[in-house]
Amino acid sequence: MAKLHVTTSVNGEPVEFLCEPYDTMLDALRGQLGLTGSKEGCSSGDCGACSITLDDRLVCSCLMLAAEAEGHEIRTIEGMAHGDKLHPLQQKFLEHAALQCGICTSGMLVASEALLKKNANPTEEEVRFWLAGNLCRCTGYDKIVRAVMETAAEMRGA
What we know:
DNA polymerase, domain 1; globular; alpha+beta; 5 helices; 2 domains; Ubiquitin-like (UB roll)
């Protein structure tokens, strides 16, 4: 089977890569592109550890074929910080100790950023609903929700 040539943008940078027709976007990110922040937790779209955005739409990269990235904008956890300056969500996750083992952290951060782009003033219920597709086995979610809520308030200037 011939490899497919994919031209896309990842974290604002143009990229090209070759992939098998059956490769997932997670395979391409972690393999050819060397971006290992997205984690493989379940390979069935149930845990959210591999969350990325595709044209600002939150998706599980384990369920997306790499070839589907053609012509689209992909954003991963590696694109959140600007050099050494953490994204406000990353900083709040640290301040609130909203991470432990780290498997879910990148997916939680990407999903949280996607939420705040759509809704700058979410209620706690909306945050919990939005993050329901991201499983965490360590933190109990409360610290994560608090970090997202506080980040939203600070980003609004409240």
